[in-house]
Amino acid sequence: MHTILSRVFNNGNSQAVRIPAEFRLNTQRVTISKNAQGDLVIHALDSQRGQALLAALQDFDADFIEQLEANLQEHLPLQEREDL
Fold this sequence. Notes:
Elements: E1 8-11, E2 14-17, E3 30-34, E4 40-44, H1 51-57, H2 62-73
Antiparallel strand pairs: 1-2, 3-4
């Protein structure tokens, strides 16, 4: 395993770690977890994550959105319930 000494510094209200160039991440988002030994594990997230959802949402046309908004404006009748 390749080990490099780096530094920890404050960035606003957060802590940050300088990642040396040879460990550079090719992503904008990561997950960080702590294992049982207390080690921090950084896992790069795929930059394409969520693209399938965004592509599916493109299929909704203006008529669908208009109907959805109309349904949200519709006032549903109050339900009658027994007193507690």
